[in-house]
Amino acid sequence: MRELGVSSEVFPSDISVEVLAGSPSLKGVIISGGPHSVYDADSPTMEHAVLKAGIPVLGICYGQQLISQLLGGKVRKGDKGEYGLAMLDLKAGESQILKGVQDHQQIWMSHRDVVASPPPGFRILATTATCETAAIEDTARKLYGVQFHPEVVHTTEGSKILRNFVFDICACEKDWNAGERLALVENQIRAVVGDRNVFFFVSGGVDSTVAFTLCMRALGAERVRGVYVDTGLMREGETDFVERTFERLSPGIVSIEHAGEEFLGALESAREPEHKRHIIGEQFVKVQERIIESLGLLGESWVLGQGTIYPDTIESGGTAKAATIKTHHNRVPGIQKLMEEGRIVEPLCEFYKDEVRAIGRQLGLDSELLERHPFPGPGLAIRCLCSEIDEPVVRIAEGWLVPVHSVGVQGDARSYAPVLAIEAFPTQAAKLQDEATELVNRTAGVNRVIARVALREPFEKQQVFASSITKGRLELLRQADAIVREICVRQGFDSQVWQFPVILIPVGCGESRDSVVLRPVQSVDGMTADSVAMPDELLFAMGIRLMTMPEIAGVYYDLTHKPPGTIEWE
Ligand code: XMP
């Protein structure tokens, strides 16, 4: 809505119709998607009366299903899931919500449940190969539903559909001005912080640097301090980059704490992703508390600043109804406690990544910093995969089942499943991304598809090794990551992708017990992503260079979009 220049607010779904209708500025309601099934007990619902108040309502995905169920339609589990790109076919006839949209166009789907029959009074406007009720409307009651996601960039005409709703159906006027954002956020910072000072743990990423700079502007450099914790889980050259960045802002404003040994020691026993994340989160809090104490920052006069952005709070279950897909380290119990005490300021918590970059440009920050690929707080630890046991790679009809579990997201819920490796040549692999989505939907129990770029020994000799996060494996990953980054920058590929995680998986044979996965993705905000096609020369160059490391048994290319995969493997 804000991208369209219209102000909007997010409410829990069970808000009362009195509160909603009592707001003089209310022009319409959008009911979002979510991971539940409307027919399950305890699934989120809404007051029936909202649909009868004469307010225009648009339901997206789960929202469409909820409207249908509440008004006497039928929702059931679909015969198969539909995750990723799909084609929408419009039915003949006038429509308000799909006005001006082409008859056949690309959309983004992420669902298993479907509306089997819409409620009385509704007309079906469009279908896909898998979904008979991809869009519905009842113009008399001003109720609209779409099964697909108009809000993601992959739905080619999504913003036209949202514009139809906001401007034509709800008659909204433009009242949200991005240019006024800075002043608003700075006022908010002053209101939250009061006469206290702000202390940041900066990461060197765009979010925490922009949040830090905003606080510096709002409060003055003398009231803002930062520490960069070198967790030993960062990429090569990272600490130097951070030091340079902040020295340029204001000399001495940020100091460096070397804590690599501590983090590594704490991670020794961890294998499972959420366990790793919790350990890192707790370790962050420990180091943080030690620093606060040693610098004399205890007491009421300090507030903790954070660069949390909106998608972080959605994906870690921070909004009341979203399922926990991954726990972000800034939402672990220690930090929760500070939040409950009101000792936290998160100036960017309502913004998406592209908005954060725009704010950074307004603040005059370096484009080298602003155009950096995002890098996760828990660092290389979530790209260094582990396994409890030795396990063989298994031949199945679709390829090879590699029993390394990685995190994925299907129907807005978390999955944790093995990977399917296919035998396609890398030259074909770049064209296989869309088929990969279909393969995941079809192959029981996997959430990703990878293709081989280079292998020291054939598939039948590969196995998964019992493994944990060790100094040696981290160093190996760091070197592999540096090699990939160097080639990307040299060949100008760096600026063509949104992010390029390099992942180490404990798959190999003999003395070479690890393999590297290349994961270039295109995205707007990290919420959804496309696996990017890489030119053959680039793939070959990376494969050859990486295979010069004797510890590396193979190089793979992740073909999976998000959903059904996530960007990070964990
Ligand atoms: P996923 O793997 O969930 O990642 O598709 C979406 C985006 O979020 C980044 N990410 C994180 N960023 N702290 C962060 O600051 C975290 O704990 C974290 N985990 C994932 C990820 O790199 C991608 O850009």
Residue share in helix: 25-40%
Remind me, CATH topology of the largest domain?
A: Rossmann fold
Largest sheet: 7 strands, mixed
Derived from helix and strand composition plus strand pairing, the structural class reads: alpha/beta
Tell me the number of strands.
Answer: 24
Just name the CATH architecture of the largest domain.
3-Layer(aba) Sandwich
Number of helices: 16
Distance between the first and last residues' Cα: 32 Å
The spatial strand order of the largest sheet comes to 1-2-7-6-5-3-4
**What is the CATH C-level name of the largest domain?**
Alpha Beta
Whole-number total of structural domains: 3
**Could you tell me which ligands this complex binds, including any ions or cofactors?**
xanthosine-5'-monophosphate
Q: In CATH, what is the homologous superfamily of the largest domain?
A: HUPs
Tell me what portion of residues adopts beta-strand conformation: 15-25%
Globular, elongated, flat, extended or rod-shaped: what is the shape? globular
Overall average pLDDT = 90
Radius of gyration over alpha carbons? 25 Å
Low-confidence segments? none
Written account of the structure:
With 570 residues, the protein is an alpha/beta fold. The protein folds into three domains: 17-169, Rossmann fold, CATH 3.40.50.880; 178-379, Rossmann fold, CATH 3.40.50; 383-558, GMP Synthetase, Chain A, domain 3 (2-Layer Sandwich). It is 30% helix and 24% strand. The chain has helices spanning 17-22, 62-70, 158-169, 181-193, 206-219, 238-249, 260-267, 273-294, 310-315, 333-340, 353-362, 367-370, 426-429, 433-442, 471-490, 536-546, and strands spanning 29-31, 57-60, 74-90, 104-117, 123-127, 135-138, 143-146, 197-202, 224-230, 254-258, 302-305, 344-345, 391-392, 394-396, 399-410, 413-422, 448-455, 463-464, 502-505, 507-508, 514-518, 521-523, 529-531, 552-558. The strands form five sheets. The protein has a seven-stranded mixed beta sheet, with helices on one face. Strand 22 (521-523) and strand 23 (529-531) form a beta hairpin. The longest helix is centred in the middle third of the chain and has 22 residues, at 273-294. The radius of gyration is 25 Å and the shape is globular. It binds xanthosine-5'-monophosphate. Xanthosine-5'-monophosphate (XMP) is lined by residues 315, 326, 328-329, 374, 376-378, 499, 526, 562, 566-568.
